[in-house]
Design brief:
heterodimer; A: about 525 residues; alpha/beta; elongated; B: six-stranded mixed beta sheet
Chain lengths: ~525, ~260
């Protein structure tokens, strides 16, 4: 418990600085767009309702989806820019997060801005006009000061929303306080989840109180309140951002990871091996499984581990299953030809999609393979992770065996295992390298028709690092070096309920075992 | 000083004003008198451009409306209206200083002018640091007056300036203003529906009805016998009231 809190504290400077940088930029940009728009909207009805309508519309999009939507958009723009100007730009991380959060921050500022400006007493406006103020003088001397408290109330709301929503930037590759929450959820590290929630809440409250001081200062014309609030904001932001200036230049290497324990461990393993050569490394955790390959191909991350079956079906859009070796060989050629991506080699274990059941339940129903399961499926419920049911593997296995479940339920993986153990579902879509298979005494159902493709863990290198000797030298020893038992053990050390390790600690232990050669795949 | 030459303004779905032709000599105190909807306020606002006439020409102090941007014309004309429109986020002194600051006066001149105006409008000297919300209705209108006079305009436009005040304050403020008008050599156009106020303050009364001028003369002449029926009806009320009050004052009976 204490060491988990200590581990969370150690990550705070990096996560907090990135979180503050992102929220601050989004808020400043949101203000820069919303305030002039609010002035235009308050003077012109033809601008007012479309602006408010669009801002409200943005608000109805779930914030996570809004963040996710900017990735493909920026990727397309980057590709266009590459084609036209010979220069692309990163479509992952800061840019899409900033754009989504900026849009998200606009509504409260815009709405309060319009309300504040149109709410100024018409007699006061008539006096300003009658005295011969120009439109600009009227705005700065009369309308803006009178609307300022209402506008500041909008800025407060916007700041709280933006700081909260910035935690959702983690899955698009931007480090934030959300890293605690997303990785904590995956590794069942509730201390980390709680730590992330509290950190984000404290940050939002602090910003809210300081902005509130400015707001009340504006309303009551008390200058010291305005200055105290402003000084608090500047000092707080400078303190939070200081680790960024201290750390200096951008890291040399970026290692990507999807959003589950095995991926965190392998990314930390690769990062540790690179750092051992003196390189500076950054990991990008919690990337979506569809975006991570494109991020690699675009050179936004340098290396990550993917699975042959996933690449085969999702990247190459193949539906056949020519066998493990043929899939690997085909991938190596095709990925290099299509995207210039180097498949360095398989790590030695498979992490396949497999359907699994509790041993006692399988025995009671007389099920040992998918063909047995198909005969009883109309009475059974299948639990799956969030993406399995929309993947081609599910269609292929369903069609091959004629699976027809009574009910299908999707869970976040942690809760999927819990649902199986509690008997809420009869079978689940598991991963063959998951440590919980052994720990929970699950049986993996046999696949006699080979409907599920092979899922060898493979090391992928981005096109711009294909000739990077340091990177290749650091990672090549991992090829064929990790057998499935070793990987399951490492995964379980992170996923288990008590005495769990951090992914970095599990990676260090794994690295030590690899060095002895004890983990080599057969 | 003020020339309206065939000005006309039509409101969509509402009454129209004009064509009106009106010439006001420098130093005159003119009352625009009439019922609501007679077009008094529209006529007044066409002088300082708060209402743009559809056609016709406006000249103030010899300058035609199209010779300069409208905000520059307004800075040379003082404007006071019933709702006052004091800037609620500024102190009394800051409100009064708005006109001089738009005219970019130096600080010392503005400060001296504020002190001068507070005394001219009979405001207590310690009022300068107060906020408008802390003042009484009469004091607020005095600040409105001081603000309108601050940049030393030669022309004052007043739209029912005393309409919301109680009768005693109203009467004393009206008399104070008339004294200022004479003392500062102003040209004043006062819009009012109060016949007595017009009779007691103005040198010249322009009676309006349905967007047109139906009479234009001195108070004494309008009270005379030669008038057309509408004007005579208008003047009868104050005359009758005055006679009744006089009778009461001599100790007589109200129904005499």
């Amino acid at each position: 418990m204490n060491d988990r809190v200590a581990a969370a504290w150690r990550l705070l400077p990096e996560y907090l600085s990135q979180h503050v940088l992102l929220s601050l930029c989004a808020l400043v940009l949101g203000l820069a767009i919303s305030l002039p728009l609010a002035v235009a909207a308050s003077r012109n009805r033809a601008v007012r309702w479309p602006a408010l309508f669009l801002a409200s519309l943005v608000q109805t999009i779930p914030s996570l989806a809004l963040l996710a939507l900017f990735y493909p958009l920026l990727l397309a723009l980057s590709t266009l820019s590459q084609a036209w100007f010979g220069r692309g730009f990163p479509a992952l991380g800061f840019a899409p997060s900033l754009m989504a959060l900026t849009l998200y921050s606009m509504l409260p500022i815009l709405r309060n801005g319009v309300a504040g400006l149109t709410g100024v007493d018409p007699a006061v406006i008539e006096a300003a006009d009658g005295m011969g103020m120009t439109s600009g003088q009227k705005l700065w001397r009369v309308e803006a000061p009178l609307a300022a408290p209402v506008i500041m109330a909008g800025v407060r709301t916007s700041a709280v929303w933006t700081i909260g929503a910035a935690t959702l930037a983690t899955p698009v590759g931007q480090t934030s306080l959300g890293n605690y929450i997303f990785s904590g959820l995956q590794t069942e590290n509730w201390v980390a989840v709680l730590f992330g929630c509290i950190a984000a809440a404290v940050l939002a409250l602090a910003a809210d109180q300081l902005l509130g001081l400015i707001e009340s200062g504006l309303a009551s014309r008390r200058r010291w309140r305005i200055w105290t609030g402003a000084a608090g904001l500047v000092i707080g932001a400078a303190l939070a951002l200081s680790p960024i200036w201290a750390s200096g230049a951008t890291p040399a290497y970026r290692i990507g990871a999807k959003n589950f324990s095995e991926q965190y461990i392998l990314a930390d393993l690769m990062a540790a091996r690179l750092e051992a050569t003196g390189a500076r490394v950054e990991t990008r955790d919690d990337l979506g499984s569809a975006t991570i390959y494109r991020a690699l191909a675009a050179g936004e991350i340098d290396a990550y581990v993917d699975y042959s079956g996933t690449l085969w079906t999702n990247v190459l859009n193949r539906t056949d299953n020519p066998g493990r070796a043929a899939v690997l060989a085909g991938l190596k050629v095709e990925l290099a030809r299509r995207d210039g991506v180097l498949l360095l080699g398989p790590l030695g274990f498979e992490n396949a999609y497999a359907l699994a059941m509790r041993q006692d339940r399988a025995r009671a129903l007389g099920i040992s393979g998918l063909d047995d399961l198909a005969r009883r499926s109309s009475e059974l419920t299948l639990g799956s992770d969030l993406e399995f049911l929309s993947r081609p593997e599910w269609r292929s296995v369903k069609n091959a065996y004629g699976l027809n479940f009574k009910k299908l339920v999707s869970y976040q993986p942690t809760f999927m295992y819990a649902a199986l153990m509690e008997g809420e579902v009869d079978a689940i879509s598991a991963f063959s390298s998951d440590g919980r298979i052994e720990a929970d005494h699950l049986v993996v159902l046999a696949d006699p028709k080979r409907a599920l493709p092979p899922y060898d863990a493979v090391l992928l290198i981005s096109p711009r690092r294909v000739h990077d000797a340091r990177l290749l030298a650091a990672l090549r020893p991992l090829v064929g070096a990790i057998n499935v038992a070793t990987m399951r053990e490492a995964n379980y050390s992170v996923d288990r309920q008590s005495g769990k390790l951090t992914p970095a600690a599990a990676a260090a232990r794994l690295n030590a075992k690899i060095a002895t050669g004890a983990a080599r795949a057969p | 000083m003020i020339e309206l030459d065939g000005v006309r303004k039509a409101w969509t779905g509402g009454p129209s004003v004009g064509p009106l032709t009106l010439s006001i000599e420098a130093g005159t105190f003119v009352a625009l008198l009439g019922g609501s909807g007679a077009g008094k306020t529209t006529t007044l606002k066409m002088i300082n451009g708060l209402v743009e006439p559809d056609s016709g020409g406006v000249r103030v102090a010899g300058r035609a409306a199209d010779e300069e941007p409208v905000h520059l014309r307004r800075r040379r004309i003082g404007y006071v209206f019933q709702e006052i429109g004091l800037f609620p986020h500024m102190t009394v002194a800051e409100n009064v200083a708005v006109g001089p600051s738009l005219a970019q006066w130096p600080k010392e001149r503005t400060a001296a002018r504020i002190a001068e105006l507070l005394s001219l409008t009979a405001l207590p000297a310690d009022a300068s640091g107060r906020m408008p919300a802390e003042l009484s209705g009469g004091q607020r209108q005095r600040v409105g007056l001081a603000r309108a006079l601050a940049a030393e305009p030669k022309v004052m436009l007043m739209d029912e300036p005393f309409g919301a005040l109680d009768p005693i304050v109203r009467e004393s403020l009206g008399r104070d203003y008339r004294a200022l008008h004479d003392q500062l050599g102003l040209t004043t156009v006062l819009v009012t529906h109060d016949v007595t106020e017009a009779l007691l303050l103005a040198d010249r009364i322009v009676v309006m009805d349905a967007g047109h001028i139906i009479a234009d003369d001195t108070p004494a002449a309008l009270l005379g016998e030669r008038q057309e029926p509408a004007v005579r009806a208008l003047m009868d009320t104050p005359r009758r009231q005055a006679q009744a009050v006089e009778v009461l004052a001599r100790g007589g009976d109200r129904h005499e």
